[in-house]
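Lab notebook, bench 4. The sequencing result for the construct came back, and we need a structural model before the next group meeting so we can plan mutations. Quick request posted to the team channel:

Model the 3D structure of this chain.
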Amino acid sequence: MSLVLQLDTTRWQTHLIEFATEIELVPVIKGNGYGLGFSRLVTEVKHLELDLIAVDTLAEATQLRSFWQKPIIVMQPIRPNDQINDENLILTVDNHSPKIKGPVIVELKTKLQRFGVEISEISKFADMQVVGYGIHLPIGDSSNFAFAKDIATQLPGKQLFVSHLTKSELAQLPDAKLRVGTSFWLGDRTALSMYAEVLEVRKIIGKLGYGQVSSAKEIAVISGGTRHGIGMRAPTMPANLRQRVVAIGLGLFEALRKAKSPFYLGSKSLAFADTPHMNVSLVQLPKNHKVQVGDKIMVRARYTTTYPDFIIEI
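Done. Here's the predicted structure in token form:
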């Protein structure tokens, strides 16, 4: 009755070791722990003998303290109302941050347009213990390296903490450390898989579900619902024509009660038969299927938004 994440430990650890080789690395641990949880990720950081990790928020730093006693970078800039009760943090500051007594990283403005100050403004932090400068870049932007290199040229000898550069690009910036999450923890997708269990198979006459809709003639009830993050899809911001067409197509599927689910029968996504329930989902079954109660169904969902019941290491 569970949604299970299966981890090929040897393959995963091999990827982590290869990724961490020959670069200055600061692993990012945030959110749901990339589907694996904070404790599991900290264990691997210790195996790699790294001395510094990064989180997004103060709340995440607090959660990590029971697993990790060394310094933690908090990447989200501090605000006046934040309660700071941990002296072993490296805090991030920008124009709206209060004066901090301990070590800080000054977040620089980038094309991401989320936080950060102009490089011409960094002198205002001269009375703080600045240990570096944060550069949070967009994902996959072709100008990322040029931007980071320009910053490095303007701040010679200063420590940079950079997000979303490749290993080869980072190697060309001698004073930079890579803050990295997804491509590190989830970089080898073949090492992770998820599956759910078929709990019921039944033919439908009439309507079904909480919404009482006529959407299917036969359904399967599968473990995994909103509590696990199933069906909690984030809105997309299409950047090109192809992405807009895909977004329109997904909306059309939903309007026709054929919204695609993350549950797969072979290579085909099974359509939802009803809005996902808290712990289970109802999906439409195709004609001539061979699905039975107890079968395992492949789940293809974002690990960063999915909360499995169990993690099984093989």
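DSSP finds seven helices and 16 strands in the chain.
Will bring this to the meeting.
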